[in-house]
Amino acid sequence: MSFPAEPGAPDAPAELHSTLPAVALCEPDGPLRTLFEEWLQRGGYTPLRCGCVACAARVVLVIADFPMPQCEGAGRIAMLRRRFPGARVLAISSQFTPRMHGATAAAATLGVDAVLAKPFSCEPFMAQVRALVGSAAASAAGAVPRC
After folding, report:
1. DSSP alpha helices (H): ranges in 2-121?
2. Beta strands at 101-102 and 114-117: parallel, antiparallel or unpaired
3. pLDDT of the residue at 145
4. Total domain count, the chain
């Protein structure tokens, strides 16, 4: 019931000391994770790998892929809540219907703060991040949210 190891995930990246809000990415697909990292950086957030144990205390949002949310969701969410206490959780999955986004009944049933159906573009992704974390800290750091 754990997320797969992420190749090249550093134990303590330089971003650990950033003042921007930290977002943990639990996305096993490398190219997709890289794209999410780029979007988050442009939006004024510090993307971190889900496997970074040293980063856990800084994380304010966890974005996690759930390939089969009904089968494995509860166990993974419990593990994420233990690993990142106090962080909000955005579940992403291609199993969600296209209209599933935000703090929906599906999110409440799954036990997360919001859901987002794959595939999606930068705008709805960043809208969910801002809704869950807020843009005040990123704006204070001089970041201009853009996709």
Report:
1. 30-42, 69-83, 105-110
2. antiparallel
3. 58
4. 1
For residue 70, what are the domain limits?
19-135
Torsion of CA 55, 18, 122, 70, to 10 degrees: 10
Cα–Cα distance between 130 and 43 in angstroms, integer? 9
pLDDT along the chain (147 residues), means of 10: 45 60 92 95 91 83 84 80 92 83 78 91 94 67 59
133 membership: H or E segment, kind and range:
helix 122-133
The CB density around residue 108, as the number of other CB atoms within 10 Å, is 12
Q: Which of 61, 84, 48, 54 is nearest to 135 (CA)?
A: 61
CATH number, residue 60: 3.40.50.2300
Nearest alpha carbon to residue 83 among 49, 134, 38, 35: 49
Q: What is the pTM (predicted TM-score) of this model?
A: 0.81
